[in-house]
Amino acid sequence: MGNIQIELFTTLDLVAQAPGGPEEDPEGFPFGGWQVPLLDAASGAQVDAAYEGTDALLLGRRTYDIFAGYWPQYEGDDAASFAELFNRIPKYVASRGTPDLTWAGSTQLGPDLPAAVREIRDRHEQIRVVGSVNLVQTLLREKLFDTLDLWVHPIVLGVGKKVFDDGAVPSNLSLLDPPETSPNGIVHLRYGLAEGVPATGDMDDLPREP
């Protein structure tokens, strides 16, 4: 069974909407491109490392349309490795509509999203989910992920789509690696899905120091 790894850029209040530009997801959101002023080489290297071994992309419709309009025509050196990878590997699109699938290797998932995700999980070893906040929230509710990578940026927006919505399912996660920081204050956190649901307790039951 393959590994489904979610990659998200977020703010301190866990907003993950439109980090890369004002046109990504502008509806009711005035801060498109909030990540750009905070980018630095250290966080970029962390992102590069996170994609090692990727053999499939799982994307929501909006992210897919943005990628399909950009990466096939990409020319340059700065992100050449991403262009080669994304253009080569299979792309799976979660959409209720009819996306344009002319990007080579693209397939639309069926209406039973959990079943379709389980199927591609059996077909690939390292599946990356990029952006796609609505899709991510479904995967979190269904517990259809193995790893959650968060790059937390030192800003608060107070508005926008968040990583966890009101329908989030109580879950335990384990920190897989020590947090990584960058000069601009970005913190990379990598969590793995753990068994069970969060436990509760009472501070009065803790042992007291003599």
Describe this structure in words.
It is built from five helices and nine strands. 24% of the residues lie in helices and 22% in strands. The mean pLDDT is 94. The protein is of the alpha/beta class. It has helices spanning 41-50, 61-70, 80-88, 113-123, 133-142, and strands at 3-11, 56-60, 91-94, 106-108, 126-130, 147-153, 172-175, 180-181, 187-194. The radius of gyration is 18 Å and the shape is globular. The chain starts with a strand and ends in a 16-residue tail after the last strand.
Observed structural traits:
nine-stranded mixed sheet; alpha/beta; globular; 210 residues
Helices, strands, pairings?
Elements: E1 3-11, H1 41-50, E2 56-60, H2 61-70, H3 80-88, E3 91-94, E4 106-108, H4 113-123, E5 126-130, H5 133-142, E6 147-153, E7 172-175, E8 180-181, E9 187-194
Parallel strand pairs: 1-5, 1-6, 2-3, 2-5, 3-4
Antiparallel strand pairs: 6-9, 7-9, 8-9
